[in-house]
Amino acid sequence: MTSPEPEQPTGGPLRVAVIGSGPAGVYAADALTRQRRVPVRVDVIDRLPTPYGLVRYGVAPDHIKIKGVARALRRVLEHPDVRFVGGVEFGTDLTRADLARTHHAVVYATGASVDRRMDVPGEDLPGSVAATDFVNWYCGHPDTELERFVLDTEDVVVVGAGNVALDVARILAKTADELRHTDIPQPVLETLAASRVRTVHLLARRGPLQAKFTAPELRDLLALPGADVVVDPRQVDIDPTAVGGGATPELGEVARAARTNLKLLREHASRERRGLPRTVRMHFWARPKEVLGQDRVNGVRVESTRLDADGRLTGTGETTDIPAGMVLRSVGYAGVPLPGVPFDPRGRTVPQEGGRVMDADGEVVRGDYVAGWIKRGATGVIGTNKSDAAATVRSLLEDAEELCSTAPAPVSLEEVLDERGIAHSDYEDWLRIDTAEADQAMELDRGERVKLHGWEAYRRVIGE
Ligand SMILES: Cc1cc2nc3c(=O)[nH]c(=O)nc-3n(C[C@H](O)[C@H](O)[C@H](O)COP(=O)(O)OP(=O)(O)OC[C@H]3O[C@@H](n4cnc5c(N)ncnc54)[C@H](O)[C@@H]3O)c2cc1C
Q1: 47 CA to middle of ligand 1, Å?
Q2: 421 pLDDT exceeds 70?
Q3: What is the pLDDT of residue 11?
């Protein structure tokens, strides 16, 4: 008996696997299904049974309006030509070779989930952790254990001057009452309620004009009802022509965003302290030299900095020790390599041109595309991923004819997962989790949703 000829493509839909159901992955599915020229079927595959990536596990729980973007993403996953496949990790459960049997094209949208390091002595002492861990904890990411944080120290240092650093400082400085109507898992809320933290030190290596945080985040911090935010007036009394005692960026040339930040900080610095129970202290021109402690963190040695004549950051040699029982580093996020997919270890991204993945020889990897943070690094807001994913999809659709003409006849994803014995979840399972979280909120009389916590809780609801 001769084996049957592989089925020739019959002009059926273009099958696209999108790896990652964060904003970039979902927006890629959206761009694919919005057009009419090429019929498509899209599988959005995520290692978690819950979609939306950092919208669910990154955006701060008290930013309820921003989290509302999930409603728009939900409509995409409910499109008849889109399917959500949860609990399947690319690289372990599923390989690129598997996907070559099941799909004509793959869009990697796996984000940038690993924190960057400060590279200072003492960084790995117990009590010195990545802000990523802390964010995962309060967002209820199933990879982080509930017991991960106890908050039994009065002083915390947060290193970084981006929006994530401000999020982390704000959550630490808020009272449990202020967080009650968020989706924070109940046991995490209880730990926050029992927190002994009184002072949060925010360390920014550069000055207020160079800080990466944006005005809305800064406003939120400065308006905390239960915490005094202390800004040293000398650090924000900036001569427009001489910043940091060296460089001379004209205030007029500095981005409008930075000017707004400076205005907010200046106004705030001139205000009286209110004697509130908690304090957030902003330290500009301060970089960590060493995390101090023997068996665990007991402080951070900080060196003052300035910009030299060429605008480069330089240490002044003057150091101060800030006592602290916990250090959270928030100095950036980085992508992780995906097995079988080219990776640029310097940029920590997948090399690409116009969203087409490029190999080490600068050749296009046929059928492979990339979108979101793993494509361009950890920058931009949620909306940035929409235009970014749309650009990638434009390239993919330009290649559609060629992809369909030569790709092998697709085998179904289920067949491959079944062959492997990989249990997976679907969109209905996610809706079960979604409902269980809404029910929990009702029972606890807390907002719209209270997140379940941990793999076990998800499995119970899904009934695996
Ligand atoms: C702490 C934090 C707070 C933020 N707050 C805001 C905010 O308030 N407003 C705003 O506009 N932006 C905010 N951002 C930025 C925003 O979240 C990002 O722009 C956006 O999430 C990036 O989208 P993405 O799809 O590339 O990555 P992600 O959102 O990270 O999604 C990646 C997805 O891929 C999945 N995945 C990863 N590896 C695999 C694998 N091997 N196999 C299968 N699936 C995999 C992950 O589970 C995840 O679901 C925040 C970012 C962070 C880190």
Answers
A1: 13
A2: yes
A3: 57
Residue among 110, 183, 388, 393 whose CB has most ligand 1 atoms within 8 A, to mutate: 110
Q: What is the DSSP letter of 341?
A: S
- 3.30.750.44, 3.40.50.300, 3.90.380.10, 3.40.50.720: CATH of 14-113+335-423: 3.40.50.720
Are 70 and 44 a contacting pair, CB within 8 Å?
Answer: no
Nearest protein CA to atom 52 of ligand 1, as residue:
58
Of 56-60, 156-160, 331-335, the one with minimum mean pLDDT is 331-335
Architecture, CATH, for domain 116-328: 3-Layer(bba) Sandwich (3.50)
Which among 382, 384, 424, 433 is the best mutation to test ligand 1's pocket, defined by most ligand atoms within 8 Å of the CB? 382
Task: Please identify, by atom number, the ligand 1 atom nearest to the C-alpha of residue 20.
Answer: 34
Residue 292: what are its φ and ψ, rounded to 5°? Answer: -95, 155
Beta carbons of 92 and 421 less than 8 angstroms apart: no
- Please provide the average confidence, as pLDDT, over all residues in the chain: 92
Question: Cα torsion for 238, 242, 243, 246, to the nearest 10°?
Answer: -150
Confidence of residue 408 (pLDDT cuts 50, 70, 90): low
List helix spans (H) across 21-121: 23-34, 54-57, 64-67, 69-77, 96-102
What is the per-residue pLDDT for 458?
A: 96
CA of 111 to the centre of ligand 1 (A): 5
Cβ of residue 111 lying under 6 Å from some atom of ligand 1: yes
Domain extents for the chain? 14-113+335-423, 116-328
For residue 69 and ligand 1, the question of a CB distance below 6 A is answered with no
Using a 6 Å cutoff on CB, does residue 46 contact ligand 1? yes
pTM: 0.93
